[in-house]
Design a protein that fits this description.
The complex is a heterodimer. Chain A is an alpha+beta fold. Helix content of chain A is 40%, strand content 22%. Classes of the chains: A alpha+beta, B alpha/beta. At the A-B interface, helix 2, helix 3, helix 5, helix 6 and strand 2 of A face helix 2, strand 4, helix 3 and helix 4 of B.
């Protein structure tokens, strides 16, 4: 039977890219002075898995390159070479090259052979020069000082091959659990002339280093159930709680399952999937989840429709039906939350790119920078996550390029030579708060003002508060970089960052203190798919106001309202005067009430400002499924999307920041 | 390409000519060498064919050079067969050498603990 391996290519690429990310993080964690042997082992395993996978799929260039990389790592692992800064750099470069090679192969494009060959040469050179390097402190391979591990005696029966088993494959998988030393037992191997080539005549004794779980080892040999003699023996010092059973020698339990039944279930056979399988998770394509989300969205609409009908029901079963509908609503909400959780990913997916970036940029700019990441486990919707990456990269680059000073300047200012860039994420109510900050120079008010005047963004006579000055950096085309570098200050600056974040329904603000640093505060919605909304009526139309933006709803008395300049209306709200936005005027709808005291005012916050929305009535609160207006119709200022209500009608969802901007323009005009 | 990989006795950095195996080539230069190329797919399905091929060379007096460079898939059955071939020839004091680079082949050899047997050095025992 010939297995079509191309069906596993996508999985291989996906897993390899993930594995490279893991490898990169592990490399960045690697302490040059005293490397953790387990970290080196982790890195080795990744290289090994990618090599095995690429060889299986016939990606010879990648296999050859990873072979050299693996050899170098093997030297480091065995302590025959020390981890130096140059080695660490070389390994990081290898990660980059591998990533490029994988991308090229995935896109069926030619690989940059020269770059690969050069780096492979450097790897080989490093290995060849290992004699000159001091010994590392990592684990020794000698038997006397052998660290904890396992001895596995594996003697397949003669029919082993014929039953679809292959020790090469099994040992490859075993090697993903830790470093292995394999000793073949060929005592039973007959002379070639008498050898039955389809029968297994070899046996093996394997030393597996590290603290792999016995269960994981047994899983490797699952395929061979009843087809071999297997003894698994614990070696070296183990903590008492790690030593599960006194019978350190065991044989495989019998199973009725054919040995090759697991073969396909194990995916690409590249070995990379072992961790995924062990974690009890499965890979599902995003499209499938989106489909599920869509269906749930439709269900929410149907449920809303039924809820709307329920008060009209009469008769003996009506009460029961109503309680059933209430139950349905609860279940719907749970279902929806469950599906949403599936789409949630920790922000570490985005944060993980920064250690490398900060390290590289700091090197290039001759700055010393420490990166602090907190709240990496904060989860947010995949769509939001994908779109927040670039703005965050830009902000971090800005912090490094403009924020953090050179070590000399810092020391002269009485600060530690190494600057700090921090990234933090946390849940705050229904939103995610992300903060990017540094302890650098802070925003320079005088320079910002000078630049803004030069660019004609403000008049020379304008006097601005600190906050207003800081807002200037978010204006299109604003950049204070003395020299345009390829890091930041390319004119596609903070305005693009703010626009991208706004498109996600989020906000960005800056807090800064001269000489102490800056903090960029970002808020993001948890999801872009569903919003808790307040339905409001204006004339015959219904609009949705996102619940998270609503502060209060009130009915104004005529004396509370002040008019100015014949255009605007203001009302006092908790010691502030807020402008009124009449929704019927914005959307050109004939209202039921024109006098403010006849309708209701919903106080909302958008774009950092509070306003009162004048509406005819509040209808109720409900979850609404956001349908993109932009995709189905076009972009409308002040509207973030549309939804289908229970009665089948369409309601527009208000984009409050947009609405506030739009209204201020109208008032100004 | 401006740089060349450094030559090392056991491994080669890149697919290239057999320059790094020059010591083997020299030792074998005196005799006509019989070359045998392993198939791309060294798997159970092909193992009987491979056995016939190798069995025919088992007693050959000339040095045998097994070229592994084309191997893209290799399983235990094939490596076991090759191990028996190499071992038997060496036991009969007949030269056998493995040549060529194949990451897949190397990996298989390493995983099965057959590295020592398949060391890429010429195997002409002292007379």
């Amino acid at each position: 039977m010939t297995l079509d391996l191309t069906q596993f290519h996508d999985t291989f690429f996906e897993e390899s890219f993930e594995a490279l990310d893991t490898m990169e993080s592990a490399l960045l964690e690697l302490d040059v002075g005293a490397p953790d042997p387990e970290t080196i082992n982790d890195i080795f395993r990744v290289a090994h898995s990618i090599k095995g996978g690429s060889a299986t799929f016939g990606f010879g260039d990648i296999a050859s390159f990873t072979h050299s990389l693996e050899t170098l790592l093997d030297e480091l692992r065995a302590g025959r070479m020390a981890v130096s800064v140059s080695i660490s750099d070389l390994l990081l470069k290898s990660v980059d090259v591998l990533r490029e090679m994988l991308r090229a192969v995935q896109a069926k494009l030619p690989v940059d052979a020269q770059r690969v060959a050069d780096l492979q040469f450097d790897l080989e050179l490093a290995i060849a020069r290992r004699g000159g390097e001091p010994q590392s402190t990592s684990s020794s391979a000698g038997t006397e000082t052998r660290p904890r591990g396992w001895r596995i005696r594996f003697h397949p029966y003669r029919e082993f091959f014929a039953r679809g088993n292959d020790p090469v494959r099994m040992l490859r998988e075993l090697a993903t659990l830790g470093a292995i030393e394999v000793e073949a037992d060929a005592t039973l191997l007959p002379a070639l002339s008498e050898l039955d080539p389809q029968a297994c005549h070899l046996g093996w004794t394997i030393h597996l280093a590290g603290g792999a779980a016995e269960e994981a080892i047994r899983e490797v040999f699952d395929w061979a159930t009843g087809e071999c003699d297997l003894q698994i023996e614990r070696l070296g010092p183990w903590a008492a709680e790690e030593r599960p059973a006194p019978d350190t020698v065991a044989t495989l339990p019998e199973s009725s399952e054919p040995p090759h039944a697991n073969l396909l279930a194990r995916g690409s056979a590249s070995g990379i999937s072992a961790d995924v399988a062990a974690a009890g998770s499965i890979r599902v394509s995003v499209e499938k989840i989106d489909e599920l989300m869509n269906t749930v969205g439709e269900l929410v609409i149907t449920q809303a429709m039924l809820s709307q009908l329920s008060p009209l029901l009469e008769g003996p079963g009506a009460e029961q039906l109503r309680s059933g509908l209430a139950q349905l609503e609860r279940n719907m909400r749970e279902l929806q939350e469950s599906v949403m959780r599936v789409r949630m990913l920790p922000i570490s997916f985005v944060f993980s790119r920064f250690p490398r970036m900060v390290r590289d940029l700091a090197q290039r700019l001759g700055k010393q920078i420490e990166l602090k990441l907190t709240g990496e486990h904060t989860e947010l919707d995949k769509t939001v996550l994908e779109k927040i990456g670039d703005p965050l990269v830009h902000l971090v680059r800005n912090c490094i390029d403009h924020g953090i000073e050179t070590p000399e300047v810092r020391v002269a200012a009485g600060k530690p030579a190494a600057g700090t860039v921090h990234l933090d994420a946390c849940h705050r109510g229904g939103t995610i708060a992300v903060e990017v900050g540094d302890d650098g120079a802070g925003l320079d008010r005088a320079r910002i003002l000078a630049k803004a005047r030069e660019r004609g963004l403000i008049a020379p006579s304008d006097t601005l508060s600190d906050e207003q000055v800081h807002e200037l950096i978010f204006l299109p085309g604003f950049s204070t970089a003395e020299h345009t570098t390829d890091l930041s200050g390319r004119g596609v600056g903070m305005d693009v960052v703010r626009r991208n974040i706004k498109e996600l329904g989020g906000t960005i603000d800056v807090r800064t203190e001269r000489g102490r640093g800056s903090r960029f505060l970002i808020t993001l919605p948890l999801t872009l798919a569903i919003v808790d909304g307040q339905t409001v009526a204006v004339g015959t139309e219904t609009y949705i106001v996102p619940l998270t933006s609503i502060i209060e709803s009130l009915q104004l008395k005529p004396e509370q309202v002040n008019r100015f300049g014949g255009r605007g209306e203001l009302f006092a709200f908790r010691g502030q005067y807020l402008p009124v936005i009449r929704l019927h005027e914005i959307f050109g709808v004939e209202p039921r009430a024109r006098a403010l005291h006849q309708g209701l005012v919903v106080v909302v916050e958008g774009d950092g400002r509070r306003v009162g929305l004048f509406v005819d009535d509040l209808l109720g609160q409900q979850q609404v499924v956001i349908k993109s207006l932009e995709t189905n119709y076009g972009r409308v200022e002040g509207v973030s999307g549309a939804t289908i209500l229970g009665d089948g009608s369409v309601a527009l969802i208000l984009d409050l920041p947009g609405l506030v901007r739009f209204a201020s323009l109208r008032i100004a005009a | 390409m401006s740089k060349r990989p450094p030559a090392r006795p056991q491994r080669r950095a890149r697919k290239s000519s057999g320059a790094t195996h020059s010591s083997g080539a020299t030792r074998l230069a005196g005799n006509p060498t019989t070359h045998v190329r392993l198939p791309t797919e060294c798997t159970l399905a092909e193992v009987h064919d491979l056995k016939s091929k190798l069995a025919a060379l088992l007693k050959a007096q000339s040095p045998v050079c097994v070229d592994v460079s084309g191997v893209q898939r290799v399983d235990t059955a094939s490596l076991q067969l090759l191990a028996a071939f190499v071992r038997d020839r060496r036991a009969s004091r007949l030269a056998v050498e493995l040549r060529g680079d194949s990451a897949v082949f190397d990996e298989g050899v390493r995983l099965l603990g057959l590295r020592r047997l398949f060391e890429r050095t010429p195997a002409v025992p002292p007379v």
